[in-house]
Predict the structure.
Amino acid sequence: MKKRAAILVPVLALIVILWFALAPPRFWLNLTRRVDLSDPVAAGQALVTQYDCQACHQVHGQGRPFGPSLDGVTRRLEADELRLWLRQPQKVKPNTTMPNLRLSDSEIEAIIAYLAANDQ
């Protein structure tokens, strides 16, 4: 019995570690990727740079036109639609090339605030 427990505990620990690394649950993302929203526009701008959104999208006319331009996106889509896109793009469009960046809720809010500020 002790031998089983000695094997089972590390195996379960490895499974949990892999789960959190490969497909972290939302509560974990919100704990580990929390963004200070005292200035959400500045935080969003930093995140757009950090996640290199301009590698695929144009922002302020700068970047690659591989994906849709993010200029004017908050006028084209409601905030809830943008939240879903940023949270789980494959659920919105199953064959999309947009990766799931595993963003926390505060990161999503900051990015939307930045995009909205640019669309005014």
Remarks:
- The chain has a mean pLDDT of 92.
- Residues 42 and 114 are 7 Å apart (CA to CA).
- The longest strand covers residues 58-59.
- Residues 2-22 form the longest helix (21 residues).
